[in-house]
Design goal:
This protein is of the alpha/beta class. It contains 12 helices and 5 strands.
Length: 314
C-alpha cells in the first residue's frame, strides 16, 4: 500500500515537473510560438506563418529530421535555444535561409505553401542553416569558412544520417568545387569575397582539411572531431572568436596543425588545389552517379570514412 502511494506521488511530482519545464520553454520562446520542440537539451521555438494543423505537422517533421541530422554530426544540437521563423511563399519549394544572432539565435526560411513531405525530405537549406549555429562569429572577412563549412557539412552529415545518397554528395563536390578555385587576379581566401570562393572555396578548404587530418591520424579522426571540439569550447554562433583561436581549438582536438597550416597557406595567397589528383586518390569517378567508385584508390578508405552512415559504424 505504501509502495503504491510512493509510486503515485512520484508520478504526480514528475507530471508537475514536466508541466513546469514545458511552461518555462514556452516562456523562453516568447509569444506567437506555434510549436516548441526539444532536441536533447536544446529548445527550438517554431514560429510558423499560416500555421494550420496540417502545415504545423508537415514542418515539425522537417525541422525534427534536420535537427537530428545536425545533432548526430556534432554529438548534440549546437544551440541551447533557437527561434525558427518559417515563412510561407508560393509554390512547393524552399527559399533561401539565413541565420542571425540579434537578441538571440534565429533561423529564417520560407517554405512553399504546396511543399510536400517528399520535397522536404530532400531539402538541404535547413540543415545548412543549422550548421551555422555550431561555429562562432569570426567576422565578415572569414565568411568563406562559415559558408564553406555549412556547404561541406550539410552533404556529409546528411549522408551519414542516410538522408542523402553518398554518390550524390561526391558528385556535387566534384562538379562544384572547381568553382572555388582562385581565378586570375584573385587573392587568398580572406581577400576574395566572391560567391564562388565563399561557398565552394570554403567547402574545398574543408575537404582538404578532412583528408589531411585523416591522413595524419591514420583515419582515426577527421574534420568532424575538430568541429565538435570547436563547438564544445566556444558554444557556437552565440560567441565571438578570432579565426586563429577557432582553428587552434580544432587542431588541438586532432593533434595536428592542419586547419592552421591550411589557413596560413591560403588566407592571403591564391592556392590552386590539384583537384584531379585528389579525386583520383580518393577514388571518386568523373560522374559518381553513373560510374563506380574506385575502392582500391590510395585514399579510398578516407573517402569511405568521411561519408560512412552512422548506423554502419562499429
Amino acid at each position: 500500500m505504501r509502495r503504491g502511494l510512493i509510486t503515485w506521488a512520484a508520478i504526480a511530482l514528475a507530471s508537475i515537473a514536466g508541466s513546469a519545464a514545458a511552461l518555462a520553454q514556452t516562456r523562453a520562446c516568447g509569444p506567437q510560438t506555434s510549436e516548441v520542440m526539444t532536441v536533447g537539451a536544446s529548445t527550438l521555438c517554431l514560429h510558423i506563418e499560416a500555421a494550420t494543423p496540417a502545415r504545423i505537422q508537415l514542418l515539425q517533421v522537417w525541422v525534427r529530421r534536420s535537427a537530428d541530422i545536425v545533432a548526430q554530426y556534432y554529438g548534440r544540437f549546437p544551440a541551447t535555444l533557437v527561434r525558427l521563423d518559417l515563412g510561407i511563399m508560393n509554390g512547393d519549394g524552399i527559399g533561401g535561409g539565413h541565420t542571425i544572432n540579434e537578441g538571440g539565435l534565429s533561423i529564417h526560411v520560407d517554405v512553399g505553401r504546396d511543399a510536400s513531405p517528399e520535397r522536404l525530405v530532400d531539402d538541404w537549406v535547413l540543415v545548412h542553416e543549422m550548421v551555422h549555429l555550431a561555429l562562432p562569429e569570426i567576422g565578415r572577412r572569414h565568411d568563406w569558412l562559415a559558408e564553406g563549412l555549412a556547404v561541406y557539412v550539410e552533404g556529409v552529415a546528411r549522408a551519414q544520417a542516410g538522408n542523402r545518397a553518398i554518390a550524390d554528395v561526391w558528385a556535387e563536390d566534384r562538379r562544384s568545387m572547381p568553382q572555388g578555385l582562385p581565378r586570375t587576379g584573385e587573392g587568398g581566401m580572406d581577400q576574395t569575397p566572391t560567391w564562388a570562393r565563399k561557398y565552394w572555396g570554403g567547402a574545398l578548404y574543408c575537404l582538404e582539411a578532412d583528408v589531411q587530418i585523416r591522413q595524419r591520424t591514420a583515419n582515426r579522426l577527421g574534420l568532424q572531431a575538430a568541429l565538435r571540439a570547436i563547438l564544445e569550447a566556444t558554444g557556437g554562433y552565440a560567441a565571438e572568436r578570432e579565426i586563429t583561436d577557432v582553428l587552434h581549438i580544432g587542431d588541438a582536438a586532432t593533434g595536428t596543425r592542419v586547419l592552421e597550416d591550411l589557413y596560413d597557406q591560403e588566407k592571403a595567397t591564391p592556392v590552386i588545389a590539384q583537384l584531379d589528383a585528389l579525386w583520383r586518390d580518393l577514388g571518386v569517378p568523373q560522374n559518381p552517379l553513373t560510374e563506380p567508385f574506385d575502392d582500391h584508390a590510395p585514399l579510398a578508405a578516407i573517402r569511405i570514412a568521411i561519408t560512412r552512415p552512422l548506423n554502419s559504424r562499429s
